[in-house]
Amino acid sequence: MSLLFVTGTSTDVGKTIATAALAATARAAGRSVAVCKPAQTGVAPGEPGDLATISRLADVTRTVELARYPDPLAPDTAARRCGQPLLTLAETASAIESLADADLVLVEGAGGLLVRMGEFTLLELAQQLDAPVLLVAAAGLGTLNHSELTTRALASAGVRCAGLVIGAWPQQPDLASECNRVDLPAVTGVDIVGTLPAGVGSWQPERFAAAAPNWFEPAWAARYLHG
Predict the structure, then answer these.
(1) b vs e for 131-157, b when ≥16 Cβ sit within 10 Å of the residue's Cβ?
(2) pTM for the whole thing?
(3) Pick the catalytic residue: 15, 27, 37, 226?
């Protein structure tokens, strides 16, 4: 089993669509893929969440969601508000390890790296499983600071950053976005290994799956996604 965690510099930077693109790229290379979203917030029971989006776009049939909370808050806060127990590090690691017969297991966090998933952060989960973490970043203003803070936290914890992905590259990028594309690797010491065009989450699955492998650096994809 290859294991890759996906986190973001913040919420709404494109983690779910990036996870779908990773899954589609791996599946195009003939690999079996499983996806775990430990905690889903802001979605009521029976409503489609992030895993439904990934399944639709990448045709992934094996997904695991351990907890769901209705309030659109950090998972630990949302759990306390609705009276549910907090996820534990041990049960979450065990659920991910149960997917070990898949060639590639993707784990999508909630919000940023240090958001509490329950009794733990995604960073602590990555430490526990000795997993690399891919960082999805925004294109515009603020991304340099957010990205450097996140990559520094990973380095301090001894967790490998697998690369940077720009989660939504605008059709008409402004000056900040153009400069950030150059400056991100310089300030973080981490390469940009993928760039997703804005709006691809609304594409039909066939178009999405066909295009996804083109959004990642080939050598990087061969290492992390192709096996």
Answers:
(1) bbbbbbbbbeeebbebbbebbebbeee
(2) 0.97
(3) 37
